[in-house]
Amino acid sequence: MFQCLTDEELMADVAKANVQSFNVIFNRYYKQIFNFVKKNVYDHKAAEDITQEVFLRIFKSAARFDPERKFSSWIYKIAFNEVKRYYSKAAARRTSSINEPLDSVWGGAERSEILEYKGLGPELSTESESRMQQIKELIGTLPEKQKTVVILKVYQELTFEEIAQVLDCPLSTVLSRMRYAVRRMQRALEGEIDE
């Protein structure tokens, strides 16, 4: 019965503390939100913790959800804010040197984990393995605001309008960030800039 309901209908039930409806929402979105968080945080354990926090916030804030809005945009906005909160806390705690080895800065994560990105769009599926690796690395080197737009568009397959809602910025800003990211990556792939 609950499986047939829309996200917005389920959230109306969650607002009444209906745990079954919350479980459906959780099952529908957990993997997507975890993948989004992991692509921004790089640390598996931290990504799990942040994702749990996202769903906790959804449960606690269900009564404030506006059913006129699209739920998927709302949940990504919460996830985006949790990622920002994670980096704010990390920055406040971090006393590490700028010259510290990469593995100590990223909590022991291997470089391959840090650069792990999966599921690039179909237009890239014919690229060679080395080209794909270059693209994965380039996404990781984009400025934070551009990288977030690319991840939300390519990996989470949100529309530009949804991304604008998630990031709480004008559509023109989102389009501009995407354009700059694509241009930067194209130049890097053509060898015009060193990454």
What layout of secondary structure does this protein have?
Layout: H1 7-14, H2 19-41, H3 44-61, H4 71-93, H5 102-105, H6 111-114, H7 129-141, H8 144-155, H9 160-167, H10 171-189
Helix pairs in contact: 1-2, 2-3, 2-4, 3-4, 4-9, 7-10, 8-10, 9-10
Task: Report on this structure.
- The structure is a single chain.
- α7 packs across α10, α8 crosses α10 and α9 crosses α10 (171-189).
- The protein starts with 6 loop residues before the first helix and ends in a 6-residue tail after the last helix.
- It has two domains: 1-110, Rna Polymerase Sigma Factor, Chain: A (Orthogonal Bundle), CATH 1.10.1740.10; 117-195, Winged helix-like DNA-binding domain superfamily/Winged helix DNA-binding domain (Arc Repressor Mutant, subunit A, Orthogonal Bundle), CATH 1.10.10.
- The chain has helices at residues 7-14, 19-41, 44-61, 71-93, 102-105, 111-114, 129-141, 144-155, 160-167, 171-189.
- 68% of the residues lie in helices and 0% in strands.
Summarize the structure.
The chain is an all-alpha fold. It has helices at 7-14, 19-41, 44-61, 71-93, 102-105, 111-114, 129-141, 144-155, 160-167, 171-189.
The stretches of 5 or more residues where confidence is low (pLDDT under 50) are 94-127
Span between termini:
52 Å
Binned strand content: under 5%
CATH superfamily of the largest domain, by name, is RNA polymerase sigma factor, region 2, helix turn helix motif
CATH architecture of the largest domain: Orthogonal Bundle
**Count of DSSP strands:** 0
Percent range of helical residues: 55-70%
Radius of gyration: 18 Å
